[in-house]
Amino acid sequence: MSLSHIVECISKSASERSDSEVIELVDWFLNMCPLNIKPDVARDILRNCAFRQCQRDDVIIRQGEQGDSFYIILDGKVSVYINTEAVLDDPDDEATTTGGEEAAQAAVNATAAQPEQSRGPVSVSSLKRKASKGSTSAAIAAATAEKKELDRTKYGNFIVNFGAGKSFGELALINKDCVRNASIIADEPTLLIEVNRDLYNRSLRSVQEAELRERFEFVSRCNVFDSWPSKYRRQAAMSLRKENFGFDATIVRQGDPLDGLQFIVSGQAKVVVNIPMHPGQYPLLGLREFHFGSDEQPPTGS
C-alpha cells in the first residue's frame, strides 16, 4: 500500500471516508504502528483521526504548553528535546525511589500534575491544513529549504529521534490538566496522524496509561537510576520505549553511532566484540593496533 493512498484517505473529513477505505487500512496500521490495540480500535482511529504535515524545524509540541493531541508518524523523523531547568523536582523525592506499583502510580500522578512552565521561543505556526489528493512529504521539501534554521539549543537537551511508525504526545493526554513535558521538532518533512483528546480517551488511553505505569515501575526497580534526582528519573521513564527483537536480530552494531541505552527486560543477548576495531574507535587511549597474517583470525570476546 502506497503512502499517497493512505494520505488520500485520512486527508478527507471523517464523514467522507468510506467503510471500505478505512477497513483496507486497518492491517497496514496495525503492522506499521505497534500500539497493542484491537482492529476495531484501529478502525475508530483511522475513521476519526486528522492528517498533519510538517516541514523541517516545525515545533510540533512545545514543552510547557497544554496538550490536546497524540501523534503517530506516517513518514519522516522528529527529535525530542527536554529543558531540564523547566522540570520541577518532586516535593517528596521518595515517591519515585520506593519500588512497586504504588510508587509508579505516584510518579505518573506527579508528572500529570506539573504546572505549566514558561513558554519557549515564538512558536512556528501550527500546520492544520489538509493535504491535496496524492500529496507526500516531498511536496513540502522546497518550502523547508527556504526556512531559516531553528536554534534548537533553546529547547534543551536532545533526548531521542522517532521515525515512521513511532508515536508521541500521550503523556499530556493521560490527565486533562497535564502540560507537555518535552518539545518535539520535525527533522525533515514529516507526515502525521493526529488523534484528538476525545478520540484518544476512548481508543488508546487505557492501554497507554498501563504502559506508562510499567515504565515508571521499571525505573523504580532498576538500580541504574537509584542515585538520579527524581525529575531525571521521571524523564527517563518518559523516554523509555519497548521494542521487540526476533532471534538472531542485531540490537546494536559495533562502530555505529550511539543513539541510546538498551535494557533487556526478557530473553537473552550475545555480546560479540571485534577487538581490532578498538584502536580506531578510541584513538585517545593509544591502544596497540593488531596485525594478522593471512591465516590468522582477529580475536573476539563475548
From TrEMBL:
- UniProt-listed Gene3D superfamilies: Jelly Rolls
Q: Which organism is it from?
A: Macrostomum lignano
**Record's InterPro entries?**
cNMP-bd_CS, cNMP-bd_dom, cNMP-bd_dom_sf, RmlC-like_jellyroll
List the PROSITE patterns hit by this protein, alphabetically. Answer: CNMP_BINDING_1, CNMP_BINDING_3
Q: Which residues form the Cyclic nucleotide-binding domain?
A: 44-221, 224-274
Query: What's the protein here called?
Result: Cyclic nucleotide-binding domain-containing protein
Known CDD domains for this protein?
CAP_ED
Q: Where is this region: Disordered?
A: 110-129
